[in-house]
Every structure is written in structure tokens, then in C-alpha cells.
Amino acid sequence: MEVRAHMKAQSEYVGFIFALIIVVALLIPLMFYLLDISSPSSKPINYQTVANQQVNGGTVIVYYNTSANPKYNQVIVYKSDPYFELTGVYYIYQGNIVNITKQIQAVNSQGRTVGSLPKAVIYNFTVPAEAFNYPLILQVSAYNSTTFVLLPPNETAIAS
Questions:
Q1: Does the 47-159 domain belong in CATH 2.60.40?
Q2: Which of 41, 56, 156, 157 pairs as cysteine with 149 (C-beta 3.0–4.6 A)?
């Protein structure tokens, strides 16, 4: 009888050690892992990346129309977003970046001039004849960050 009681106590001890190993080896690391899952939401969001993705085929689609007549050059906004603002326009000429922001005018859907920059990206924008057929660089502000957008002639915008 004593041997049986001794064996029962020993098997309970082995069972206790086995349960303890499972708790220590599996459950405690699992608890730390589950507590750490929510930490990415506490990190600040990189709004620069969000703005770039919205311009690269997201919610804002911009097209640079260069026709045969430089008078009809326009930056056409196909998908607009009032939270995006065009704050500067530059063009690349012989390796130099030329600022033409003061010459850009916003044009509404009826073709009337609304004013100069900065303007929300809900309008189309005129391009002066001097920038005809040259790649444009648009300075777009959104989500408290600024992104620069390359706009080749007769193509859609590419955020860098």
C-alpha cells in the first residue's frame, strides 16, 4: 500500500512539473506576444507615405496635358481631394529646376480662373508656355507633410 501511495505522489509531482513547464515555456511567452501586438498602433503614422500612395494612383490622379498648342497646357485633376493642396510648381529645364509657382492659375470646371496658388487639388491648373513639354514637379501638401510629384508631359503623376 505504501508503494502505491508513493507512486501516486510521484506521478502527481511529475504532472505538476509538466504543467509548470507548459506554463513557463508556452503561456508566458504567448502572453508577452499578445500584449505586444497592439504596440504598432501606438507608433506615429508616416503621413508622407500615405500622401505618396494617394498620388500614385490612389485618391488623387493628376495628368499633365501638353497639346500641340502651348496655350492649352494644363495640369488636369481627374480624381480630386480637398485635403490635398498644390503649393508649388516647378519645371526642369536643361538640368535646372525653375520655379513657376506665381504663374500658375487654378481653373474651375467652367474654365474660369479661380486664383493663384496655393489651392486645393480640386481644380485644374494652367501651365505657362515657357514650361511647354517639360517635366513638371508639383509640391503637394497633405496630412501636415509635403510631397513632391514628378509629372512628365502627357502622363499621370508619380510621387517620389
A1: yes
A2: 157
